[in-house]
Amino acid sequence: MRTLVFVYLLVIYGYKLSSQEYTIYGNVRDATTATSIPEVLVTLKNSKFSITTTGDGAFILEGVTLDGKQQLVLSKAGYKTLILPITLEGGKELNLFYIPLEIDLKELNEELDRISLTETELNSDEEQQDNIISGLLGATNDAFSNAAAYDFSSTFFRPRGLDSKYSKVLINGIELNKINTGRPQWGNWGGLNDVMRNREFSLGIQPSEYSFGAPAGVLHFNMHASQYRRGGRVSYAYANRTYTGRVMGSYSSGLSTKGWAFTILGSRRFGAKGAIKGTSYEANSIFLSIEKKLTQNHRINLVAFYTPNRRGRSTALTQEVIDLKGNDYNPNWGLQNGKIRNSRMREIEEPIFILSHEWSLSDKTTLSTNLAYQRGTTKNSRIDYTGSTLITSSEGQESFIGGARNPAPNYYQNLPSYFLRFPNPTAANYQNAYLAQEAFTNDGQLDWSQLYAANTIATNAGLNSIYAVQNDVNKDSFVQASSILNSNFSEHFKLTAGASVSTLKSSNYAQLEDLLGGNTWLDIDNFAEDDASTGGNLAQTDLNNRNRIVREGDRYKYNFDISAFKASGFTQLQATFKHIDFYTALQAGTVNYQRNGLYENGYYPGEASLGKSSEINFTTYGLKGGFTYKFSGKHFALFNAGLQSLELPSNTVFTNSRQNNAVIEDASAEKLLNLDASYVYRSALLKAKLTGYYLDFANGSELSFFYTQSLQSPLIEQGNALVQEVTTNISRRNIGLELGIEYKILPTLTFKTAAALSQNTFTNNPDVYYTTTLANNKITFGDGTVKLKNYHVSGGPEQAIQLGFDYRDPDFWWLGASINRFSNAYIDVSNLRRSGAFSTDYDGLPFNDFDPAIARDLLIQEKIGSYYLLNIVGGKSWLVKGRSIGFFATINNALNTKYKTGGFEDSRIADYRGLQEEKEREQPLFGNRYFLGYGATIYANLYVRF
User: Fold this and answer.
1) Cβ-based neighbours of 396, under 8 Å, separated by 6 or more
2) Could you give the dihedral angle defined by the CA atoms of residues 183, 184, 185 and 186, in that order, rounded to the nearest 10 degrees?
3) Range 375-400 average pLDDT
């Protein structure tokens, strides 16, 4: 045994004598300005030896055991990668005193156009639009992803048919999806383009270093100050889509010799209108990131940004309105004292603070711990036309007078179709229809002066205001802590583990913003159906403050809090070998919600509305895995599989949170099976990727609010009711193919094509029930289901095809264009029309004249016609005395094509007889409502980088 030990030690000693250990010194500087460059990754090619430069650009690579001819690779974002040949022999030190890195203009230009394009989308507030953002910012070198980001997004195309609540957005390890909606609030970081370039996107359920993953992918922004290239940028942008001008300036110090780094940014976006009139835009953004490198192994970073923004909104339109006023009509605005005023404004003010600590436990393991705090408000305004005045009789009997018709100019009673609604219109009907058409086409905007005049008359008569502007306010206080461990614990294996805890207190209330010339407002429900026995109680929004008089700035109508607690953890193992890579991951979490009512509603007295609700809990899980098989350096096959359960957002759990504590029946987490497989080919000339995917959803839930005249129940007079529609046990299936090809015809000219072919359908008949203040119990029809099986799930076109080219000249100018075809977009169907209410009369009995053939025709889902869009992009850059100067412009929909992106059926009329009458009319009273695409839009950016 001693002999073996001696021989072993002798071998080791001999190896040590024969092996040299080298130390490589160097200093990396900007080739143009000669300033030092920190955080440059220095790697000895085909070895484990690597290090990053310090604040003064220096590095020391110690313990190198290789000798002979080697290659030193130096890389940093914004610079050209340098491969430096070196020879290690003789002495034990190699001193590379000065290593110049050149700015990579090509990379900076590509980065600029990628980020600039996202700017036009960052503030969408329609649910069908918000899903496109993660794809946009997650654009990669994959041809299909780039097409979906830049060209398909303008049609509100959803990659794989997924809403944004199925994605995850993180900044410095903090997940920023809203707990109450499940979606990212993109306006919270609008205008921060220059500091959003350090991002990592994990497509679908592929591995992520920051999260377990999500069906639509994970997008992570790294905003640590040391990760930005030293220097600044100032720019001016012109656009005609959401705003007309943007000024922006940013500067990054880089990491100093004392271990400090900072990045600052300020920007302003503005415009009296965008592509649609009345959509004013005003936004300011400030950003600060400060980092201190405490030791070689510890660093802390503080990020703070505040992006208050205020914008006017538009709305979906019926075909009758489109025909009369065109695609760019917006009924929400009118002139007040000669200036445009929009009644539906959206304001977001939610500053975010993130404190991060990074600990390098070893050269292979890092631990990142993050703490975030966010507090602020989101407001959405609208006109309240229910103002009333209390009248008390000599006997003490209460009654209310007041209220008015909806003042919206596109209200159905203002349109020609209203006067031609009869089976045999008279001459007087035609005359009234003509007058309505003339009035609407010649004006058709909100009459603010009429609202002020009505309030003035009421005030002079001793009455309360009739009209007011109301804000629906959401005020959140959010705290999250997270910790993420990444360890390359061996040559082939990497472990990632993370945990996070979040708490939310969300205050929700209506606020009286503007009395429009009046003095007071009576806080009651004008639509309450009262009688003498109730003493006016039904109408009370708060029984503890009966017949309350409110003024501007006061809370009224509803007032409640939502508290939420969320905790989750995941672990992920990745393995890399010569021909195969694989991974597996597990996730578990818990979510808790509770409502606390601050008003005791007259319809729901006592604990039904006042005080705390029962706690609602969800337990979630996730399991996923996949592999990549490398046939060669050019051919790859990928496969991913995952099974997840996803909690319901709080705005779905509480079915009528503005009035009571009711929760969705049999609330359960949505379950999702996710499968995809890809083939990838990459060569110097050709890049291609073909992906097939299968997504199966089960136990989904949705909540809708609307007014209907077809709630066909004996409990409801003539079916007229404001209802909450609760749909549960929803099953869906998304299947499709994605193709992306790039072929380099010339070194400077690339041909590209991409295609998405999918089918997104319901696979069962979900359960549905209705609640209303007019009935004490839930209302169901027939067997309690909605017949949705085989209907398409709406959400942008299911098919998109692109052909295009990209030319990039060596002299740093470029031009690209693409023609894109979109088809198979479907209107969102009305569930009430496909419930038992459709075939039932007001007395609860079936219609005696019901014809199944006619019924099938009435319930056909509308398919939107196909259309083509031409997009053009181009720009030029110059390098002048170390400064990069450039111009960039895009023209979307260059041919000014008019098209619809989606829409929904109106549930106002949802019964067989009512729909028959609608179809027989020349123009339906309550036709489908459509979201419309923009006409030709331009975005141009001029910048100087120094």
Assistant:
1) none
2) -130
3) 92
Of 273, 200, 272, 264, the closest CA to residue 228 belongs to: 264
Checking phi first, is residue 191 left (phi over 0); if not, alpha (psi -120 to 50) or beta?
A: left
Give phi and psi for 101, each to the nearest 5.
-115, 135
In order, the DSSP letters of 276-323 are: STT--EEEEEEEEEEEEE-SSSEEEEEEEEE--EEEE----EEHHHHH
The two structure tokens encoding residue 521: 């407002």
Q: Which among 495, 674, 663 is positioned nearest to 576, based on CA atoms?
A: 495
pLDDT band per the 50, 70, 90 thresholds, residue 18: very low
Cα dihedral value 706, 712, 717, 723, nearest 10: -20
Q: What is the pLDDT of residues 79-118, one digit of tens each?
A: 888 888 888 887 678 888 788 887 765 555 555 444 443 4
What is the structure's pLDDT at 843?
87
**The dihedral sign for the CA sequence 7, 9, 12, 16:** negative
Q: 308-329 burial, b for 16+ CB within 10 Å, e for fewer?
A: bbbbbbbbbbbebbbebbebbb
Residue where the block lists tokens 């110059």: 878
CA-closest candidate to residue 610, choices 663, 647, 560, 552: 560
Ranking 12-26, 188-202, 631-645, 689-703 by mean pLDDT, the lowest is 12-26
Residue 93 amino acid letter: E
The tokens for 295 are: 């030791």
Which DSSP category does 151 fall into? I
Q: pTM for this one?
A: 0.88
Alpha-carbon distances, residue 404 vs 326, 453, 458, 466, 628 (angstroms): 28, 13, 12, 7, 65
CB 886 within 8 A of CB 113: no
pLDDT tier for residue 121 given thresholds of 50, 70 and 90: very low
